[in-house]
Write a structure and sequence with these properties.
Order of helices and strands of chain B: EEHEHEHEHHHHHHEEEHEHEHHHHEE
Radius of gyration of chain A: 16 Å
Oligomer: heterodimer
Number of helices of chain A: 1
Largest interface: A-B, 44 and 39 residues
Order of helices and strands of chain A: HEEEEEEE
Largest sheet of chain A: 5 strands, antiparallel
Protein name (chain B): Transporter
Organism (chain A): Sediminihaliea albiluteola
CATH superfamily of one domain in chain B: Thiolase/Chalcone synthase
Bound molecules: zinc ion
Largest sheet of chain B: 10 strands, mixed
InterPro entries (chain B): Thiolase, Thiolase-like, Thiolase_C_2
Helix content of chain A: under 10%
Strand content of chain A: 35-45%
CATH architecture of one domain in chain B: 3-Layer(aba) Sandwich
CATH class of one domain in chain B: Alpha Beta
Pfam family, one (chain A): OB_ChsH2_C
Protein name (chain A): OB-fold domain-containing protein
Strand order of the largest sheet of chain A: 5-4-3-6-7
Distance between the termini of chain B: 40 Å
Strand content of chain B: 15-25%
C-alpha cells in the first residue's frame, strides 16, 4: 500500500491542493457556513454544492497517541510520532485527523490549544506531500 | 448532546434458543483456511445439538467477510442438497448478537427450523500477505485513505490508543487499571485449555513493565491475531427442549450506531462506545437490568474498548470503569453476590483467541449450561456486548 494523497479524488483533493499552498481549507454549506466534515457531494442540510473555506488553523487536542512501534510499515521512518484528533476553533465538533509536531510527548495533553503549521511528509515508498500538522501553542 | 442512535427491534424475547455450540481449534498461523475452520465448528455444533446436517435448514454468516461459510459451502461440505434459508446478517462482532433477530423472523415465518450461525477467520495464517485481515477494509475506504491514513492515524490500535488518552484525561483512568482488566482475562485463559495464551502468565508488574506500542496501549492491550472459529445453532425453545442440550434462551437484543458512521474520528464522545445506545434496548426487551447479569462477555479488541463498554452498559457509572475493574472484580470466581462481575471467562479476544466475538457467545452458553471451564456459580443470566467501533450490540441470554 502506497500512501500519497490522490489529487484527482474529487471529494478530497481540494483539501490537499489547499494544503500544498499552505492553507487549511474545509468544505462548508454556502448558505449557513456550517462545516461539513467529512466532505460529501453536497450539503446534507440544504443540498447546495459545498464551498471550500479557509480556516484559522486554531483548535485544541481532542485526543492523541504517541506511536512508538512500527504498527504499520509505511510509518516506520516517522517513529516516534504523535497522531492527534484536532477539534477546530470554528466548530469543535469537527475533528481533523492530523499530527502534533515540534513537541515532546510528555508535554502533550488533551484540550491543549494548537496552531496549524505545514510540513512535507513522506510515508514509506509514497511521494512527498505537504500536510497541515499542528504545534502546541505557547501559553 | 446525542451522538448516536438505537436500532428499533420488535421483541423476540423467548422466540429463539441456542441449542448447539461448536468450536474449531484456536491457534496462531495454522495453514488452515477459514472455510475449513468454519466447517469444523459447524460439524461440532450440529453434533452437540444432537442433530444431523440434513436437519439444518438455515445458514447465517457475515456478508462483510468474503471467505464466509455460505449455504453453498454447507451443501458442498456435507453432501446435502435440501432447501436452505440463508442470511448474510450473521457471523461475529455485532452480528453474533443481532443474528438472533433474523433467526427469530425465519423461525416465526416457518422458513427454517434449525439455523446455524458461524464465523471463522484465518488471519494468523494470511497475515504475512496482508490479504484481508482487520486493517484491509479501513485502508480501502476513500475518506480514511485520503484524510486519515496520510497523517498516520491507522491501523486500529492507533484509533483506540487515541480514545484511551481521552478516557484517561476525562476520568483519570490509569495504565494499571487497564492492566487489571488485561491480567484478569489472561488469568482466565491460563485456566482454559483452548486459549491461545493458556501457557503465558502475566502479572500486573509484568504488564506495567512492558513497553507501549502507541501510548497508553501495550501489545497486551491489543487483541491476538488468530485462526479459529465457532458456530451456534438457533431454533425455537420448544424444539430445543427435545434436543441433546439444555437450551439457552435469547431474552433480548439491542444495537446502536454512532452518527457519522463509519468515521469514529468524528464520534462526538471519544471516551464512550455506541454500546450506550445498544444495551438499554436489550435490557428492556429482556425485562432485566445490568445488576441482574451474572456473567458478561464483552468485545475486547482492546482493553479500553472492553472497559468503556462495561461503563456504557451501566455496570458502573460512566468514567468509573477503571476503579471498577480493580481488585480482580472481573474474575470468574467473583460472582455478583460478592460484588464481582465475571467477565470474559474464556480469556476474550485479548487472551483466548481473536475470533471476533463468536467464542464469547459460545462461552456464555457454556456458562448457562453450567459446563464452563471457569464456571461462574449459579449463572442464570448472561450478556454479550458486541462491537465494530462504530456499532455496538447486546445479547441477553438465560438458562432455559
Ligand atoms: Zn446547507
Amino acid at each position: 500500500m502506497t500512501i500519497t494523497p490522490d489529487m484527482q479524488a474529487q471529494l478530497t483533493a481540494p483539501f490537499w491542493r489547499a494544503a500544498a499552498q499552505g492553507r487549511l481549507e474545509l468544505p462548508c454549506c454556502p448558505s449557513s457556513g456550517k462545516l461539513v466534515w467529512y466532505p460529501q457531494q453536497s450539503c446534507p442540510d440544504c443540498g447546495e454544492d459545498l464551498l471550500w473555506r479557509e480556516l484559522s488553523g486554531r483548535g485544541t487536542v481532542a485526543a492523541f497517541t504517541v506511536v512508538r512501534r512500527p504498527l504499520f510499515p509505511e510509518y516506520a521512518d516517522w517513529l516516534p510520532f504523535i497522531p492527534a484528533l484536532i477539534a477546530l476553533e470554528e466548530d469543535p465538533s469537527v475533528r481533523l485527523v492530523s499530527q502534533l509536531v515540534d513537541c515532546q510527548a510528555e508535554d502533550v495533553a488533551c484540550d491543549l490549544p494548537v496552531q496549524v503549521t505545514f510540513r512535507k511528509l513522506k510515508a514509506g515508498s509514497g511521494e512527498l506531500y505537504q500536510a497541515p500538522l499542528f504545534l502546541l501553542q505557547k501559553s | 448532546m446525542s451522538w448516536g442512535k438505537s436500532t428499533h427491534f420488535n421483541s423476540i424475547r423467548g422466540a429463539v434458543a441456542i441449542a448447539g455450540i461448536g468450536e474449531s481449534e484456536y491457534s496462531g498461523p495454522s495453514g488452515r483456511d477459514s472455510k475449513t475452520i468454519a466447517a469444523q465448528a459447524i460439524e461440532r455444533a450440529i453434533s452437540d445439538a444432537g442433530l444431523s446436517p440434513s436437519d439444518i435448514d438455515g445458514v447465517m454468516y457475515s456478508g462483510m467477510m468474503p471467505e464466509a461459510f455460505t449455504g453453498e459451502d454447507f451443501h458442498q461440505h456435507f453432501g446435502t442438497s435440501h432447501q436452505l434459508w440463508e442470511s448474510t446478517e450473521g457471523g461475529g462482532m455485532v452480528w453474533a448478537a443481532t443474528a438472533a433477530y433474523q433467526a427469530a423472523e425465519a423461525l416465526r415465518r416457518g422458513e427454517a427450523k434449525y439455523i446455524v450461525n458461524s464465523f471463522a477467520v484465518d488471519w494468523a495464517t494470511r497475515r504475512p500477505q496482508m490479504a484481508g485481515g482487520p486493517g484491509a477494509w479501513h485502508a480501502s475506504e476513500l475518506i480514511k485513505a485520503q484524510l486519515e491514513i496520510p497523517f498516520g492515524w491507522f491501523p486500529q490500535p492507533i484509533y483506540f490508543a487515541t480514545f484511551a488518552s481521552r478516557h484517561m484525561h476525562e476520568y483519570g483512568t490509569t495504565a494499571a487499571q487497564l492492566g487489571e482488566l488485561v491480567t484478569t482475562f489472561r488469568a482466565h485463559a491460563n485456566r482454559h485449555p483452548d486459549a491461545i495464551m493458556r501457557d503465558k502468565e502475566l502479572s500486573l508488574d509484568d504488564y506495567l513493565a512492558r513497553p507501549t506500542l502507541a501510548d497508553p496501549l501495550r501489545i497486551e492491550d491489543c487483541c491476538l491475531i488468530s485462526d479459529g472459529g465457532g458456530a451456534f445453532i438457533m431454533t425455537t425453545v420448544e424444539r430445543a427442549r427435545d434436543l441433546a442440550q439444555k437450551p439457552v434462551i435469547v431474552e433480548g437484543i439491542g444495537h446502536g450506531i454512532i452518527d457519522n458512521a463509519p468515521y469514529i474520528s468524528q464520534q462526538q464522545d471519544l471516551s464512550s462506545t455506541p454500546q450506550g445506545f445498544a444495551a438499554p434496548g436489550a435490557f428492556n426487551m429482556a425485562g432485566v437490568q445490568a445488576s441482574d447479569i451474572d456473567v458478561l462477555g464483552v468485545y475486547d479488541c482492546f482493553s479500553i474498548t472492553a472497559l468503556m463498554q462495561i461503563e456504557d452498559m451501566g455496570f458502573c457509572a460512566k468514567g468509573e470503569g477503571g476503579a471498577f475493574v480493580e481488585g480482580g472484580r472481573l474474575r470468574y470466581d467473583r460472582p455478583r453476590a460478592s460484588g464481582g462481575l465475571p467477565t470474559n471467562t474464556h480469556g476474550g479476544l485479548l487472551s483466548h483467541a481473536y475470533v471476533l466475538g463468536i467464542a464469547h457467545v459460545i462461552e456464555l452458553v457454556k456458562q448457562l449450561r453450567g459446563k464452563a471451564i471457569n464456571q461462574v456459580d449459579a449463572a442464570e443470566l448472561a450478556a454479550y456486548a458486541g462491537f465494530t467501533a462504530d456499532e455496538s450490540s447486546t445479547l441477553i441470554l438465560s438458562r432455559g
